From TrEMBL:
Compositional bias segments (type: Low complexity): 347-365
Residues of the signal peptide: none
Gene3D superfamilies: SGNH hydrolase (3.40.50.1110)
Pfam families (UniProt xref): Lipase_GDSL_2
InterPro entries cross-referenced by the UniProt entry: Ester_Hydrolysis_Enzymes, SGNH_hydro, SGNH_hydro_sf
Single GO MF descriptor: phosphatidylcholine lysophospholipase activity
Transmembrane parts of this sequence: 12-36
Lineage of the species this protein comes from: Bacteria, Bacillati, Actinomycetota, Actinomycetes, Micrococcales
Assigned keywords, A-Z: Membrane, Transmembrane, Transmembrane helix
Full protein name: Lipolytic protein G-D-S-L family
Tree of life domain: Bacteria
Protein's UniProt keywords contain Mitochondrion: no
Residue numbers spanned by region Disordered: 331-365
Source organism (scientific name): Intrasporangium calvum (strain ATCC 23552 / DSM 43043 / JCM 3097 / NBRC 12989 / NCIMB 10167 / NRRL B-3866 / 7 KIP)
Segments forming a coiled coil: none
Length: 365
């Protein structure tokens, strides 16, 4: 089964409240699940817990006239900033500074992310966040890693994420979700756990993308953004626990999210003067499940709701647009292009032609 079909199935199962077995293992089976349990325990012992918490990054960033932009961060330890050495090194703080610079307005950051949070905790975070900021302008969610390491059923995790996005959209917030990172980049994980973690991370990220777009939010793929850079320089990109990002790692993730956050706030004027997707960058419009599958293989890719001929849905489901607003570069040593059994992603310039500029793949059958 292709990743696009798996993503659609995960999202559909979440929507209808069904289940897909222990931790959503599917074809991997209980043998792989048992192996993951044993090796995950060993990996957690290797990783350790050198941090007591995360810096408090709440406050006002930037200067300028007008009311502050109300910015809400939700999610797990990545959103909380565990591994950052200073409050201004977190993803939320970095994005807040960037938005303040682009907009010329101050940004008021409220962070309700929690270390160890899973997707099922998002509902409580949303309510807590909306109690403090009843009408946020923008919300960023970073979630998924603990759903994989704690073996949470993928459809259940995706369902909770979708509900959180819908609730925030109802409150008037633009929502940007950084999807599940590629846990196959974690240095202490042995094989075959590393391969399984990579596959499960990517499948969860694809399912998250479908759900986020269906709920009216924008998803940005994080997975391979971390994998290549962190594998190339783990001593720089990982913090001392060898699991959470370092300040340099957080800066890299924030750089991928900031353009989408800025676009969601219309800081670039796209609503009044929309730009067409760029074929040579591999941008385009197509079924959301196909967009999600392609985004997983291309770090920093944004997937957002779209329309074709004035219609939000086609015969293969919700229309979605892929945008590659920014792909930060990192010096990566030459290596075998096939890593842990994964094929090399198709370069954006090689994408075939399709609907609305560059295609994102043939509609699923």
């Amino acid at each position: 089964m292709s990743r696009a079909r798996r993503a659609r199935k995960i999202a559909q199962t979440a929507a209808f409240g069904g289940g897909v077995g222990a931790a959503g293992l599917g074809a991997l089976g209980l043998a792989g699940y048992g192996l993951l349990r044993v090796e995950a325990v060993l990996a957690r012992r290797i990783v350790g817990q050198p941090f007591e918490g995360a810096p408090d990054d709440e406050g006002t960033y930037g200067f300028g006239p007008g009311e502050p932009i109300r910015f809400l961060v939700l999610g797990d330890s990545t959103g909380a900033g565990m591994g950052a050495e200073h409050a201004r090194q977190t993803i939320g703080a970095t994005i807040a500074n960037g938005v303040a610079a682009f907009s010329g307005r101050p940004v008021e950051l409220t962070n309700v992310a929690a270390i160890g949070a899973e997707s099922l905790h998002l509902g409580a975070q949303v309510e807590r966040g909306l109690e403090r900021v009843p009408s946020p302008d923008i919300a960023v969610i970073l979630i998924g890693a603990n759903d994989v390491t704690h073996r949470i059923e993928r459809s259940l995790a995706v369902g909770h994420l979708e509900m959180a996005v819908r609730r925030l959209r109802e409150a008037g917030a633009e929502v940007v979700v950084g999807t599940c990172p590629d846990l196959g980049a974690i240095e202490p994980l042995p094989q075959p756990l590393r391969y399984l973690a990579r596959r499960w991370s990517r499948d969860l990220a694809a399912g998250q993308t479908v759900a986020v777009v269906e709920a009216g939010g924008r998803a940005v793929s994080i997975g391979d953004l971390l994998s290549d850079a962190f594998s190339a320089a783990p001593q720089v990109m990982f913090s001392q626990d060898r699991f959470h990002p370092s300040p340099a790692g957080y800066a890299r993730v924030a750089a991928a999210l900031l353009p989408t956050v800025s676009a969601a706030l219309d800081l670039f004027g796209e609503r009044s003067a929309p730009t067409q997707p760029s074929a040579w960058r591999g941008e385009g419009v197509g079924p959301v499940a196909v967009a999600a599958s392609r985004a997983v293989a291309n770090p920093g890719t944004e997937v957002a709701p779209a329309e074709v001929g004035g219609q939000a849905r086609g015969v293969h489901g919700r229309w979605a647009m892929i945008r590659r607003r920014l792909r930060p570069t990192v010096a990566v040593p030459e290596a075998d292009p096939v890593r842990d059994g994964d094929p090399v992603p198709t370069p954006a310039a090689e994408a075939p032609e399709g609907v609305e500029g560059a295609p994102i793949g043939a509609p699923p059958s």
